[in-house]
């Protein structure tokens, strides 16, 4: 975003008796220019910050999913039918109760992504949706 160039020669600054700025007096037109700039600046900053968060979150998801796939054979051996939590590429907790596991994980990693999954024979569950097909005859 380009830096704004505002002509501030017509802006008055009022000081109190101690020399502290008390108020700024400017035209409505100048106010709208500054307001528009700040609105655009805030929108750009928010968009940039959300992209950083999205990228960081996505890399955490990718990392934990890769760990899940890597660890799956040993997890299936040790914890079949249980729920496991993976964080930082490692198993951090497991339980037969998904809710209990979730609550523990959220208390230990409140603002971080943690992969929680049920240990089943296949690491990724396959869903098949069958639907009837209608031919054009009616």
Provide the succession of SSEs. Answer: EEHEEHE
How widely separated are the two ends?
60 Å
The assigned structural class equals: alpha+beta
Low-confidence stretches: none
If you compute it from the alpha carbons, what radius of gyration comes out, rounded to the nearest whole angstrom? 28 Å
Instruction: Classify the helix fraction into a percent range.
Output: 40-55%
> Can you list the strand order of the major beta sheet?
4-3-5
Largest sheet: 3 strands, antiparallel
Strand content: 15-25%
Overall geometric form: elongated
Number of distinct helices: 2
**Global mean pLDDT:** 79
Strand runs, count: 5
Q: What can you see in these coordinates?
A:
The mean pLDDT is 79. By secondary structure, the protein is an alpha+beta fold. The chain is built from 2 helices and 5 strands. It starts with 11 loop residues before the first strand and ends in a 20-residue tail after the last strand.
How are the secondary structure elements laid out?
Blueprint lengths: L11 E4 L5 E5 L2 H51 L4 E5 L2 E6 L2 H11 L6 E4 L20
Antiparallel strand pairs: 1-2, 3-4, 3-5
Descriptive key words:
138 residues, alpha+beta, 5 strands
Quick take:
By secondary structure, the chain is an alpha+beta fold. Helix content is 45%, strand content 17%. The strands form two sheets. It has a three-stranded antiparallel sheet, with helices on both faces.
């Amino acid at each position: 975003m380009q830096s704004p160039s505002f002509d501030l020669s017509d802006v008055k600054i009022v000081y109190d008796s101690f020399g502290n700025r008390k108020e700024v007096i400017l035209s409505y037109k100048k106010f709208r220019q500054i307001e528009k700039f700040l609105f655009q600046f805030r929108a750009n900053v928010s968009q940039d910050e959300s992209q950083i968060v999205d990228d960081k979150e996505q890399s955490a998801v990718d990392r934990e999913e890769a760990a899940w796939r890597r660890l799956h054979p040993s997890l299936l051996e040790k914890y079949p039918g249980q729920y496991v939590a993976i964080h930082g590429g490692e198993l951090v907790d497991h339980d037969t109760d998904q809710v209990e596991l979730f609550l523990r994980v959220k208390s230990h990693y409140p603002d971080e992504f943690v992969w929680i999954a049920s240990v089943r024979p296949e690491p990724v569950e396959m869903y098949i949706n069958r639907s009837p097909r209608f031919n054009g005859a009616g």
